[in-house]
Design goal:
Layout: E1 10-12, E2 47-53, E3 56-62, E4 71-76, E5 79-86, E6 104-111, E7 122-126, E8 129-135
Antiparallel strand pairs: 1-6, 2-3, 3-8, 4-5, 5-6, 7-8
Amino acid sequence: MSTPQRPIPVPIGRPQGDAASPEASAPATESSAARPTAAPAFVQTPLIDIFEEPDGLVLLADLPGAIEDSVAIELEDNLLTLRAETRRTVPESASALLEEFPFGCYQRTFILSDEVDRSRISAELKHGVLRISLPKAERAKPRRIEIKGLDGNGPAS
């Protein structure tokens, strides 16, 4: 008997570098404000939470300082790739006394199971947290099977 497949996205490929080391990444520049389309030389791994709700999965990615135009989500076959570029959150006119939010480039890729309805995947970014909703395909939702009686009509009694 095989183990049933869980619809949990499987992360693949960890980028090089240390996510807790913002000094290792180059600070964002004005020209880097465009939507990221390709993996830069150094990327960080965003912190991710994934949980299951009745209608599907929710993936939360911590991207402090990210804005909508600096985030890209791509779906190709069963690979969901998240890319983002964040900027330093301390204004240039201010002096940082403590600066712990990492900034720079992020990337993370997940393998999606066939239980995710790819046509209804949606995302929203709010307060530096990206929320990706991965709805279950109708065929993956639990359902009750009606049992017919021996005469082929109605439920068995």
